[in-house]
């Protein structure tokens, strides 16, 4: 589960850093961060967690119990955005080191 979140976060980071065609979820987060001038990784955590909450409410409404949402969903919603933020910080630190060595 952790390895899956790391790979997913790396894929999201590369997708957003390339600044080409984005999937709808990341595109929505990118638009929100552009308007609010906030950090992409932190906003992704909020966005993913809000989708989990909506899913829980819909599940309770339609099935009278929580279905399809377990610990992996919650962990992924929290981890992926934070890992994207971490990958961004690592890349920024490497750029600073490379520019200082020139």
Report on this model:
With 102 residues, the chain is mainly alpha-helical. The protein has four helices and no strands. The protein has helices at residues 2-18, 24-36, 40-63, 71-101. Helix 2 crosses helix 3. The longest helix has 31 residues, at 71-101.
What is the H-and-E element order?
Answer: HHHH
Residue-averaged pLDDT = 92
- The amount of beta strand, in percent, is under 5%
Q: Which structural class fits the helix and strand makeup? A: mainly alpha
Task: Please give the largest β-sheet.
Answer: none
Estimate the global geometry from the Cα principal axes.
Answer: elongated
Helix content: over 70%
Short key terms for the protein model shown above:
about 100 residues; mainly alpha; 4 helices; elongated
Topology:
Layout: H1 2-18, H2 24-36, H3 40-63, H4 71-101
Helix pairs in contact: 1-4, 2-3, 3-4
């Amino acid at each position: 589960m952790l390895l899956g979140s790391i790979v997913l976060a790396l894929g999201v980071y590369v997708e957003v850093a390339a600044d080409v065609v984005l999937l709808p979820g990341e595109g929505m987060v990118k638009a929100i961060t552009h308007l609010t001038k906030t950090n992409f990784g932190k906003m992704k955590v909020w966005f993913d967690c809000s989708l989990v909450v909506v899913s829980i409410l819909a599940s309770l409404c339609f099935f009278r119990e929580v279905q399809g949402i377990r610990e992996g969903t919650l962990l992924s919603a929290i981890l992926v955005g934070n890992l994207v933020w971490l990958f961004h910080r690592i890349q920024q630190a490497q750029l600073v080191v490379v520019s200082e060595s020139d």
